[in-house]
Amino acid sequence: MAGTLIFLVSLCTVLQQIQACPCDEKGTTCNCKETNIEILDQEIGSNFITLDFENTNLKKVKAGVFNKANNLTNIKLNGTKLVCDCDIMYLRSWLMKVSAKQDIFQARCSSPSILKNRLIAFLSNSEIECQGFCSWVIVSQSVLYAFLSVHGIIIMALVHYVRRKEKVDKNFARTTQLQRNCFGSTNAL
């Protein structure tokens, strides 16, 4: 009895996190059609078997949402307004992982226009724009290039300094030797 109460309390918390989608009495099948969820960003618990977002305004599913949803075998995404940007990578990966358990041919892109109506499960990495990630990579590569360039310049300057010092030391030694040969011992002066 206490275990059931804990289960219901944790289930209630998860349901509040997904804006209280009406669920069956077991709390395993939830119909989210009447909600205005646009971003699913709260982790779904292991209790859920079916989530129905069909024909809703769902645009994004954040990474990690389904990490604990081991029993989730049916998620209806037909007619959603999913944006196929970098954030879609997680949902695509999850759909492919559970493809044997559910129909992966429901989730389609609504935007950007070039990807409209494309199946999310079959998008290639090159089609999905991850501008934030790409710009981060470009910035980090630029910083690394600048860092290596500065170090290269410093190394070249040190090599030049060492060679110059060796040349000066060699000239000094030769001049000293010439003075000794010409004037004899330096103690005589």
TrEMBL record:
Record-linked InterPro entries: Cys-rich_flank_reg_C, GPIb-IX-V_Complex, LRR_dom_sf
Topology of the protein relative to the lipid bilayer: Single-pass membrane protein
Xref: SUPFAM superfamilies: L domain-like
Coiled-coil segments: none
The entry's keywords: Cell adhesion, Disulfide bond, Leucine-rich repeat, Membrane, Signal, Transmembrane, Transmembrane helix
Signal peptide stretch: 1-20
Segments crossing the lipid bilayer: 143-162
Protein localization: Membrane
Domain LRRCT stretches: 81-131
Name under which the protein is recorded: LRRCT domain-containing protein
